[in-house]
């Protein structure tokens, strides 16, 4: 394993290399200096993994990540940034597999790199690929959701442009109006125009409602699937507050997306794994793909309680399945179960999508 660390401090990189060596890993660590006037290409160093800090300049870090993505598509890409920078963290997931909080910690980096490699290996399984080939036409990527996500990253995008996307689908527009007037969101007068409904719901709730409407658009039992997905989304976002809430809510929404695929074509492949493969084809961020793949078996994850753990708990409580108490004990989160059960019992009856 060749790990390239793009950082402004060489002494920190040396410390990381020493800590990795003490754990018995045969990893080579190279330092790519960042900071004022720094040049050099991470891709030229032929990395198996790249760790980049955003604090030395996010534009420079993003350039390195994209360069590695193009020239070494299987390399693991990790960003470290200050905790609480939610907007930039969401943007970073478009360029990296993992967004980790500073400071640079050896075990956290090791867990992140290994986790991405394990997921890549899982989704490269020959049996899974044969099962997907038998399906033929796969569900198409949610175009409205992806267009809305891109639009919301534009600081100059106004409510009018967002409303125009929603208005393209009358059924979706009706759901937006209905949810904005539900008990969970309604404050005062009833809303009858789409633009005001968009403002009332907020960007995060709107994005997940669009995603649910596109993914669970038609077919038997789609209404109940959509309702469970929205409830799981809401609960996952409540379980994991802070910068991970929005990602957890989206992963919770898509936890059972594999059930949209015909089971007779999957054979022995679990729907969760097939669903994760589908999301990978759609280009969704790795933490979401990983949570969908492992939420029923969270013990396969290393590291602390994060997206996968939140989706595991939320999905189990919404669907009435067993929560893995041994896993929660290992990650130090078991004591929070009474609080999470109370949240599940109080979740909005209409499947409110807000994770705020």
TrEMBL record:
The HDOD domain is annotated at 138-298
Give the superkingdom in one word.
Bacteria
> Do you know which PANTHER family this protein is assigned to?
HDOD DOMAIN-CONTAINING PROTEIN, PTHR33525
The protein's name is HDOD domain-containing protein
UniProt lineage: Bacteria, Pseudomonadati, Pseudomonadota, Gammaproteobacteria, Lysobacterales
